[in-house]
Specification:
heterodimer, A: 586 residues, alpha+beta, Methane Monooxygenase Hydroxylase, Chain G, domain 1, 4-stranded antiparallel sheet, 16 helices, 18 strands, B: alpha+beta, Ubiquitin-like (UB roll), Fumarate Reductase Iron-sulfur Protein, Chain B, domain 2, 2 domains, 5-stranded mixed sheet, two-stranded antiparallel ribbon, 10 helices
Amino acid sequence: MLADMSGIDTDELPFTSTDVLILGSGGAGLFAALHTLQKAPNADVMIAVKGLLGKSGCTRMVQGGYNVALAQGDSVERHFMDTIEGGKWLNNQELAWTLVTEAQVRIRELENELGCYFDRNSDGTIHQKAFAGQTFDRTVHKGDLTGIEIINRLAEQVWARGIQRLEDHRAVALIKNAEGSSVSGVLMIDMRTGNFLFVKAKAVLVATGGGPTMYKYHTPSGDKSSDGLAMLLRMGLPLRDMEMVQFHPTGLVAGKDTRITGTIIEEGLRGFGGFLLGGDKQRFMQKYDDRLERATRDIVSRAMLEEMRRGNVGPNGGLFITMKHLNKENVRKNFKGMVQRCADCGFDLVSGDVEVVPTAHYMMGGVIFNQDCSTEIEGLYAAGEDTGGVHGANRLGGNGVANSTVFGGLAGDAMAEWISTNGRHSEPNIETIKFSIAACLTPFSKKPGFLEGIRQKLYELMWEDVGIIRDAASIKRAEEGLDSIEAELDETGVDATTLAYNLTWHDWLNIKNLLLVSRTIVAAANVREDSRGAHFRVDFPEVRDVENSFFTKAKYSHGEIIVDTEQVKFSLVKPGFSLLEDAEVK
Amino acid sequence: MSDQMLTVLVWRGTADKGRYIEYKVRGLENHTVLDVVTYIQRYLEPTLSYRFSCRVGMCGSCAMTVNGKPRWTCRSSVSKVAPGGKLKIAPLRSMKIIKDLSVEMSEFFDKLARAEGRFHPTSNRQNDFNHVKPDSVKRRLASDGIECIGCGICYASCDLVAWKSNYLGPAALNRAWTLVNDVRDGAHRKRLNAVAGDAGCHACHSQQGCVESCPKNLNPTASIAGLKRVTAIAVLKGELD
């Protein structure tokens, strides 16, 4: 049967069709579905997701909240400038402007039309809290579970609307039409049966979320594996800013073979007075920054890495965070969810020391896209963490969920317009389908091996050589290391007893995608010979030549990653200037 | 718990047939049940099927029956749920099995829709936010049940769901109750009709399995009692269709 599949008669490939196919069910995917139907009520909309609708992906894991300029004294100009300053002037300014202006619409849509019930001040007005890197308290939230509120409300609207759900469906290749001019559809694996399926669509949205899960310590949901970015690369689209991987200073370390390792221990703990301790149980931040534990994410992460490399570590190779010197009741009250989570997993956050490490959190980089979420391929759209340019070299906390919901909605509007005007079904490129199926089936023709060992090698390499700090030598090591890991993966097979819900097969495909996207991180990091935002080169520690800033563009062609650069257009404001003064003068 | 050898019985099979298979796993101090399941798949039985996503109790993808009780496996430490070193892991009850430990949850989500478990707007994006005082009675009642993540644990623990397949179940009714108390919502009558029927709130026997099992410490039984009260009053007033 497998042999039949690799030489598959594509006439027999199961196929279905829809007007709009959405990959991913986070904030971007669900908003896109709802907006498509608002503008084109009779459209067929289908959402495909690797797990369950609304449950996979990271929007629901948002704890902080949603940045939006609403209050008196705040302005879109101020939110914009915070975003650009945070992004170290690498942002596409038009996209950042779209983010801050459209967020004002989207937040009211979330509350007034979809039913999100955000927290209020005592007088009944909307509450906005302070968040790092911002000059105004503008983060709308629902306790510390804002993401759950947003995704729950979006999902229940989607469930009620007859939108077709392809759950446990993994997208494996974006397929162009025979002429190569537009998208024809998406090749998928129905994970429940293990069968391939082709979904033909007039418009396709890639909204799978990025997710730097190729790092030994990472925060995103565990089923993410940069699938969207890998598919976009294979289709030939350029990814920008891939060297920009944001690390969060405190991820939990629970020891070998624990799923929870890498997940966030919230930032607020340090703001509240928590101490970071080395393996010797002494504070160390005084050696690195006057602000101690409250220094910015990048400084704390680098200091922690330095301590770890000195060997000043705990039993699992991490450092410690402790709250035990603070009032226990206050800690319990202010960090209820986190205290409970730690307790369930055997850690005492109130009176103990909890082992932590910096952890890969978010990819600022992604596919180059336009304000309406269109890409260089007709009919192909992208939104959320799969895209690049909105955040530049670093993302502000609270701009992530704003990004996915703002652009997801805009993608829905644009796709509705497209399918009502020019969009039509087209025949797929059969050769690409055959090639992609054969590539997916590769591991079944090899002797089953130990995938977990390969994943661990990838984790270590990315963490050590292209993680929080990089230099020319480490980048070179990573390039060679990835080659050898990929060669090993290609010779490692998977048990073919059954293809139905075969997670080990999907682990293989996950690692394959992570390797490809890791290559773009390495290649882009090699080209950027300065340090800014999330990218720190030990051999080029300064921010260089901001006035002539460029961004990296990585493409995949004939088995190689090619990186070139393009000048950043300061279309709204130049370095050294601020929109804010203009706005305030007005 | 110090590290110990665990005896793990894992249900394997499809909707039609299956059985428990025994595995031996070295349990480490910080291991959760999800870690044990993952270990078996990665090291011992590569074709074992299960579902998980967030790893931290926010998505509700990884609920399974653990030693007879439905639990989030990602947040259940082995030392707490299996102090004797014996684990028996099965798929969630009352849901159709896909393979091994993964289940089809569509019916559970469809019932949320059937209970009108979604917001019906009375305002739109052009308007400012409604003023709602955080300490008002209705906001507090709405907030009490709003943090449900839809993991299906209450549904799997409910005997009535197991006996009566069309019963909407605790999660859907709990969501309906938060919306009944949502002063911004515009479908009060429609929702009361949706939950007042045979398959709705009055079917609940208040056995409180849902309350005991909810990992978020929500109280669906109290929500359902609230619905019983308002639907009864609506009947008396002739407000139901």
